[in-house]
Specification:
The protein is mainly alpha-helical. It has one domain (3-48, 58-273). Helix content is 64%, strand content 6%. The chain contains twelve helices and five strands. The longest helix is centred in the middle third of the chain and has 34 residues, at 103-136. The two termini are 41 Å apart.
């Protein structure tokens, strides 16, 4: 997977959450709620005690697991250059370094893990609904030029490569627009993303949710553990490539972890129905 594709896969949680938010506060907008937290960039209303309807978790049933295993097998084949058609006991034993002796035991372990994943995902989406409400009542005071440029770059990449195009030129040619016109079309999304970024940073600072170095080291180890479980050692080229990629993108991972902390905080400090 090339570096550009990896960056799109990584895709800034702040960007996606910002785009998901409806409405955009402007510099002259009147807040519907009194600001309780103000920085040089945003005036944030009360962000605790908000009432929202809970998002239901997806059921992790047989269909879910079959699809998951098929996608993981396709990924395994693409990495290893193999052509396995199904997970067998022998293949599971090999790829997990003997941790699981049968495909059935491995599947049961995976199913239990993904039940938690889906529960956590539902909680995260519920927290995102809370954040969206907060953003509606937040006033964007000002933004830095460098911040805007970075956010604009992320939005443009997500728009272009997320639409299946391999280059900006191909996207612009097919849409019949110029680079400047694309930037104008995405301006609202960029400002939404910036406001979201500033709100998350403000709450994280206020509530002491900024990740420490020890936490980021643990995050790196967990990030690389998946490759180890697939049989890759630290000396393998693919492992080294992924580790280098992680180090290059570490600031982004740090922002993602901070975003997760803020979403967890909002979930725990809101009135969730359902």
């Amino acid at each position: 997977m090339d570096g550009k594709r990896r960056k799109i896969m990584l895709a800034l949680a702040l960007t996606f959450i910002g785009i998901a938010a409806v409405g955009m506060a402007t510099k002259n907008q009147t807040l519907s709620s009194k600001a309780v937290l103000t920085t040089e960039h945003v005036a944030v209303p009360d962000y605790t005690g908000r009432k929202v309807q809970a998002v239901a978790a997806q059921e992790v049933d047989g269909t879910y697991m079959n699809d998951l295993k098929q996608r993981s097998l396709e990924l395994f084949n693409s990495i290893k250059g193999t052509a396995y058609r199904e997970w067998t006991d022998e293949l599971v034993k090999e790829t997990t370094n003997g941790r699981f002796q049968t495909e059935q035991a491995w599947t049961a372990y995976m199913q239990e893990g993904y039940q938690k994943v889906e529960k956590d995902r539902a909680s995260r989406e519920t927290a995102q609904k809370v954040l969206e409400e907060i953003l509606l009542d937040t006033r964007l005071i000002q933004y830095g030029k460098e911040d805007y440029t970075e956010a604009e770059k992320g939005i443009m990449e997500q728009t272009i490569y997320g639409s299946g195009y391999l280059s900006e030129k191909d996207y612009l040619d097919d849409c019949g627009i110029t680079n400047q016109e694309l930037k104008e079309n995405l301006k609202e999304d960029v400002l939404k993303s910036l406001k979201c970024q500033y709100v998350i940073e403000a709450i994280a600072e206020k509530e002491k949710l900024v990740p420490a170095e020890a936490e980021m080291e643990k995050y790196r180890q967990e990030h690389m553990q998946g490759l180890t479980e697939m049989g890759y050692g630290e000396d393998d080229i693919y492992y080294q490539e992924e580790l280098q990629h992680y180090m290059e993108e570490e600031p982004q991972y740090r922002r993602n972890v901070m975003t997760e902390h803020v979403l967890d905080f909002l979930y725990e400090n809101s009135a969730i129905n359902g």
